[in-house]
Specification:
The chain has 12 helices and no strands. It is mainly α and 279 residues long. It has one domain. The longest helix has 28 residues.
């Protein structure tokens, strides 16, 4: 039995050095699922096409890429067996997952400012909850990818086992970039306007609409600094069997994804305590 002077609940600050608050996130897993479900329900509410946008966006994008880069520019896919439409769709499938996680993570703090300023919960729950809906979209798009491979008689090999690795690299990179941007976005709202512009530059600097092998040798080393080059190249290799331009680039992408993720975590964790006051 407690007296009037004894607190019912004592909230203690988390000890520093706990880079990823896995225990806290698991403790609030119900909130994590509720936020993820809310994101999925709200995304296509009051839209005419509804969830079909998950299929239309990559299909329309692949069609435009096919016309501009496959027909007009006549860029190669790196494998004569792979039609450009399938090549473009595969790149967009992974790119959309990456960029959606990045953009949603960046906005996760500002969009949920009401929750942050009123109640306590591990702030890491908000950016992680965005991954669930994006992965659902990826799964739906993957079904269309399977249908395209059947239509064009593309038989995957044992390389298909590498798909989760390439996807994990893309998720880590997107989360790392998004966490850092989200922490800055709380204090500097200019970040919210800069991120979409940066995303457009990153799109054209990544081999989404073109093969990495078509990059001129004189600038290939410079372009390869972008981790998405190795990630996209290895993802297409795993799904379509197209050759990997450089495995060194893939290794660099894996290392860079982990480093960016850790850096994003550090920035986010150091800024987390002042979110409620600043936002």
């Amino acid at each position: 039995m407690t007296t009037a002077n004894e607190p019912l609940l004592v909230i203690k600050p988390r000890r520093r050095g706990n880079l990823f608050p896995l225990r806290d996130v698991l403790e609030y897993r119900d909130l994590l699922f509720i936020l993820a479900l809310r994101d999925i329900k709200l995304r296509y509410r009051q839209t005419v096409v509804g969830v079909a946008w998950v299929l239309l966006q990559p299909l329309i994008g692949a069609g435009l890429f096919t016309f501009v880069f496959g027909v007009i520019a006549a860029l190669p896919t790196g494998d004569e067996r792979v039609p450009y439409f399938v090549f473009g769709y595969t790149g967009l499938l992974l790119w959309n997952a990456f960029i959606q996680i990045f953009l949603k993570t960046n906005d996760s703090m500002v969009v949920n400012s009401g929750l942050i300023s009123k109640i306590y919960f591990p702030r890491m729950v908000l950016p992680i909850s965005t991954v669930y809906g994006v992965m659902l979209d990826f799964a739906v798009g993957a079904v269309v990818m399977v249908a395209l491979m059947i239509i064009y008689a593309i038989v995957p090999g044992p390389e298909l086992l590498f798909v989760p690795v390439a996807l994990a690299m893309a998720i880590l990179l997107a989360l790392g970039m998004g966490l850092g941007a989200a922490a800055l976005n709380v204090s500097y709202r200019d970040v919210r306007h800069l991120v979409p512009v940066f995303s457009q530059f990153l799109l054209w600097a990544s081999p989404v609409a073109y093969a990495a092998s078509s990059i001129p040798p004189s600038v290939k080393w410079l372009v390869a600094l972008n981790p998405m080059v190795g990630i996209l190249d290895s993802f297409r290799w795993a799904v379509l069997g197209t050759p990997v331009t450089s495995w060194g680039s893939v290794v660099w992408s894996a290392v860079a994804s982990v480093l960016v993720f850790i850096a994003g975590l550090v920035v986010f964790q150091r800024s987390e305590r002042r979110f409620a006051d600043v936002i």
